[in-house]
Specification:
This protein has about 325 residues and is α/β, with parallel strands linked by helices. It has one domain (about 25-315): TIM Barrel. It is built from twelve helices and eight strands. It has helices spanning about 1-25, 35-45, 55, 60-65, 90-110, 125-135, 155-170, 190-200, 220-235, 265-280, 295-305, 310-315; strands at about 25-30, 70-75, 115-120, 140-145, 175-180, 205-210, 245-250, 285. The protein has an eight-stranded parallel β-sheet. The radius of gyration is 20 Å and the shape is globular. The structure holds zinc ion. Zinc ion binds near residues 30, 32, 74 and 289.
């Protein structure tokens, strides 16, 4: 008995050390930073912040907490036009300041960070801001949040706007991180089809990463519908092959309730494990949605709850795009 305990302790320590080593070599594809101004506005709206401000806003603290080789630092500029915020007279200025803050944080550690510029694609200034991010701030990627900005590809005017952003990203070879789910109860397969038929098929190669496996976090029938719809297209649509399309696993394997999304049941974790293997690790980006989890915390959940083998863990942590 005692011997068994000590052997399993050794195994535990060994895997912990290996886990650390690999995390230090990997990329976290979804890390947030908030400017002091954004934290102030959110606090005024009554949004609770459980940690000191620097946990969310100080790039040195964020790099220390994430402790990986590289992070994709995602701007929250899109929130200023969301309904939750209720409208600002100086909205554009706030969006610019937020994106500039992310770029300045990247400038401190240009080798460790890629900066993603965030805009509401439905705003008239969207492309101008993206251009400023690219040419002046030298930002690396584009972030879209279809839920915060209530973007519906089923609305032709929205589709046109989103298409313009995708064309911009393809032209300048900037990766797109897209929070696809817009919160509508019917969101799912048809939206995937619209994205592919109306935007991706005729677009020059683009690097697209779908946040949170396609929905707004957690794992539910909608997540499955989105993944199933993409998988069917990967199998049958040769016009998709020119693109790099991956799925970020952040906020999917929730072991705690978060922002109105409940934690997964044991059965859901089991089903998620099946979906992860079905999708394939080459299509999955390791990402945490920090401050939701740190990479160490989230990898532990993924490894234990999805019962990932050593090889699978390695494949998951391999930087994809
Ligand atoms: Zn996020």
């Amino acid at each position: 008995m005692r011997k068994a305990v000590s052997i399993s302790l050794i195994l535990l320590c060994t895997s912990f050390v290996f886990g650390q080593t690999r995390l230090a070599d990997t990329t976290d594809g979804h890390v947030h930073i908030l400017s002091a101004e954004l934290i102030r506005i959110w606090k005024k709206l009554g949004i609770p912040f459980s940690r000191p401000d620097e946990y969310y806003s100080d790039i040195d603290v964020i790099l220390k907490n994430t402790a990986v080789k590289r992070i994709d630092l995602i701007s929250m500029g899109h929130v200023y036009s969301s309904a939750e915020f209720g409208g600002f007279k100086n909205e554009r200025e706030l969006v610019e300041n937020e994106n500039s803050y992310v770029a300045a944080s990247r400038d401190k550690y240009p080798k460790k960070i890629r900066a993603f510029c965030s805009v509401d694609p439905l705003r008239d200034y969207a492309l101008e801001e993206l251009n400023r991010c690219r040419s002046k701030l030298k930002m690396d990627g584009v972030k879209l949040h279809n839920n915060a900005n209530q973007v519906y590809l089923t609305v032709p005017a929205h589709l046109e706007r989103v298409k313009k952003v995708f064309e911009f990203a393809a032209k300048y070879q900037m990766p797109i991180l897209m929070h696809f789910d817009n919160g509508h109860r019917r969101f799912g397969g048809p939206d995937v089809k619209l994205l592919i038929d109306s935007i991706l098929e005729d677009l020059p190669p683009v690097n697209l990463r779908i946040a949170h496996f396609g929905t707004s976090g957690g794992f539910n029938p909608r997540t499955k519908a989105v993944i199933d719809a993409f998988r069917e297209q990967f199998r049958n649509n040769p016009r998709l092959r020119k693109h790099t399309i991956t799925f970020d696993i952040s906020a999917v394997a929730l072991d705690k309730d978060s922002e109105g999304v409940r934690r997964l049941t044991d059965g859901e974790f089991e089903e998620l494990a099946i979906y992860v293997r079905r999708l394939g690790f080459e299509r999955i980006t390791f990402a945490t949605d920090y401050p939701l989890y740190t990479p160490t915390e989230y990898l532990k959940i993924l490894r234990t709850r999805l019962k990932l083998s050593e090889v699978e863990t390695k494949l998951l942590l391999m930087p994809k795009n």
